[in-house]
Write a structure and sequence with these properties.
The structure is a single chain. By secondary structure, the protein is an alpha+beta fold. Helix content is 36%, strand content 23%. It has nine helices and nine strands. The protein has a seven-stranded mixed beta sheet with strand order 1-2-9-8-7-6-5, with helices on both faces. A hairpin with a 5-residue loop joins strand 3 and strand 4. The longest helix is centred in the N-terminal third of the chain and has 20 residues.
Length: 262
């Protein structure tokens, strides 16, 4: 899709089927549907507005307003503007001391140990910060919240923050304690992108299962020239979960289940 942007399609989207070889629970399925959208001459803030308006319009089509009413009687208010909170501010509040992109890895590991958060010795500092967030903060984000400005060392496809070193222009959207969508200001510099993908290949060689694959075709496309672009991904099943209050298995037509014989 990014190569389509390079080719002159200034707005492009796709709803596709994804498969990831991961575990299954009430919010994760190995197979799921994903909306991916890219817009030229946009950034992650433009994609935040698009995502909010898309979700609110879906809610209004179902319920007549911006309040999702679930069968169990609970409601989620999706109206108005949605708050934005920096990732590092949330983690700092959770651990009781300031955490920044410059906080040493040793300090982050000590904070993780203090809060019973498991750390892999191979992790980069940003990964430890994200694990602290998932363990200590994620479940508390009940109202719609854009968690913004992630570590640059865990965001290999994302533009570095325009004013804050060590950060990337990325957000994750949380509603009722569950991640619903993510967006970037896309990295369009072919030299920087090559350096990031080489670093990811090194991590993959060390056994990191989440490291990105090296993609020469994509890098060649960037060398022709890609305009500043915002990109967003949203799980369609997660959107259905937001509006219905059901688990992911109830929102997929044929979810992964155990064979009858077992």
């Amino acid at each position: 899709l990014k190569r389509c942007i390079v080719g002159g399609l200034e707005r492009v989207f796709e709803i596709n089927r994804n498969f990831r070889n991961e575990g299954a629970d009430s919010t994760h399925s190995p197979e799921f549907a994903m909306l991916e959208a890219y817009q030229a001459y946009a950034d992650y803030q433009v994609m935040a507005r698009l995502t909010r308006e898309l979700t609110q319009e879906c809610c209004a089509a179902l319920f007549g307003d911006h309040v999702a009413r679930h069968n169990d009687g609970t409601e989620i208010d999706l109206s108005g503007e949605w708050r934005q909170v920096p990732l590092y501010a949330l983690v700092s509040d959770a651990v009781g001391e300031e955490v920044t992109p410059g906080t040493p890895l040793e300090t982050l590991c000590a904070l993780a140990e203090r809060h019973d958060v498991r750390v892999d010795p191979a992790w980069v500092p940003g990964k430890v910060v994200e694990e602290l967030f998932e363990a200590l903060v994620q479940d508390t984000l009940q109202e719609p919240t854009f968690v913004v400005d992630y570590p640059v060392d865990t965001s290999p496809l994302t533009r570095a923050h325009r004013s804050q070193p060590g950060l990337a222009e990325k957000w994750d959207l949380y509603i009722a304690g569950v991640e619903r969508a993510t967006a970037y200001s896309e990295l369009v510099d072919p030299v920087a992108q090559r350096e990031r993908l080489v670093a990811q290949a090194v991590l993959a060689a060390k056994g990191d299962p989440e490291a990105m694959a090296f993609d020469e075709d994509f890098l060649e496309a960037l060398e022709y020239g890609m305009p500043p672009t915002g990109g967003m991904g949203m799980g369609m099943d997660r959107l259905m979960m937001t509006l219905t209050g059901l688990g992911i298995r109830e929102t997929i037509l044929f979810p992964l289940v155990r064979p009858l014989s077992s």
